Amino acid sequence: MKLAVLLSRFPYPLEKGDKLRAFHQIKELSKHHDIYLICLSDQKIQENWRTEVQKYCKELHVFKLNFFTIYFNTFKQLFTDKPFQTGYFYSSSVKRKIDQLLNTIKPDHIYCQLIRTAEYVKNIHNTPKTIDYMDALGKGMHRRAEISSGIRKYLFQVEGRRLTAYENRIFDYFNHHTIISIQDKKLIQHPQQDKIHVIENGIGEEFLDYQKSPEKKYDLVFVGNLNYAPNVECAEFIVNQILPLLASKKELCVLICGANPGSRVQKLAQKNVEIQGWVEDIRASYVSGKIFLAPLFIGTGLQNKLLEAMALGLPSITTPLANNALGAKNDESILLAETAQEFADKIIHLLDNQTIAQSIAKSGRSYVSTHFSWQQSAEKLESVFQSSQKR
Fold this sequence. Notes:
Rossmann fold, alpha/beta, 391 residues, 16% strand, single chain
C-alpha cells in the first residue's frame, strides 16, 4: 500500500510525544508499506535527522514554514473560528505543493497526525483518509486555562473552545479516526465518537534492551520535554511542593531531565536538584534514579515518560489523571497520589522498603512490556487503513 503520511513536525529527534509516535509508527508501517512522508517544519532540519527518518521512507518531503507566514496566519485566526495552532501550521503555498505531490504519488491512503494538519487534505474525496487526534487537545487546553491567570487564562480558554469545536467539526471530513487512549476518545464531542479507534503508543524492543547499570545517583527522577507547560508545572511541583515535605531525607537528590529547559525550569536548580537538558540516550537518565515521579495534573494522552520509566524497571508514582490512559494497577504496578503529601509519603515508603520498591518495579515493567509495543500499535493502525481497501 502507498501511504502518504502528513505531519506537523519533522519526526526526529524524539524529544516530543508527537514525534515519538510518528517515528515509531512510520518505522513499523514501512516493513509492509511504502511511506511517502510529508512534513511541515518551523526549524532547519539537520542532515543526520533526515538520514535517520529517510531509512523508513519511499519518499521524504519537508516544507519549511517561514516565520512571517506562521505569525501572519496565526494572527488571521482572530477573525475566524479555527484554532490558532491550525493557523500556525497552515500555508496556502505549501498546500498547493502538497496537492501536487499527492496528485503525483496517488496514495492508497492518507494519514494525518494531529488536527492541525487537517486543513491540507480535508477536501480530498477520492482517497481514504485517517486523522490521528492523538490527544484530546481541546480538553488539554481547558486544563491549562484552569491553572493560568490573566491574558494567558483567557487565551487558553478561547483556544480550548476552538479546539473542542474543531475536533468535532473536522471528524466528518475523514473516513477513519484514531486517538491514543480511551479517556481521550471520550473527550471528543462527536455523535459518532464510538467509531474512533484507540491506537496506543508503545515501547520498542531496543528501548527495553538496555544493558548498562549505572550508579543510582538520584533518589528521584523526572523526564520530559521541559518547554511543555504540563511538564514545567510537574517539575515545579516536585521541587516546590514535594521536596519541602521530605526534610527527613536530608541527602535526597533529584534529577529533572529533558529537552529545552526554559528559565522557569532552570530556576529550580539547587544543591540537591540537577537540571539536565537534551541527552543522546535518555535511558541513562531514567536508570540513574531510584524512583520516577510524574505528578501530572494537566494534559491529556498516554504519557510516554511513564511507559519508558516503567519499562526500564523504575518504581513509578503518578496521578490518577495520568494513569487513566495507562491503566496500571495501583499498589501493584504503579503508585498513585493526588497531593504533595501523598507523593512524599509514597516516596518515603519506597525509599525505606526496597523489597516493595523492587516488586512495584518488576510488576510495572511486566505490565508495560505486555500491553504496549509499537508493533502491536502499528498492526492496529494498519488494520484501520486496510478496512478502506476492502470496501
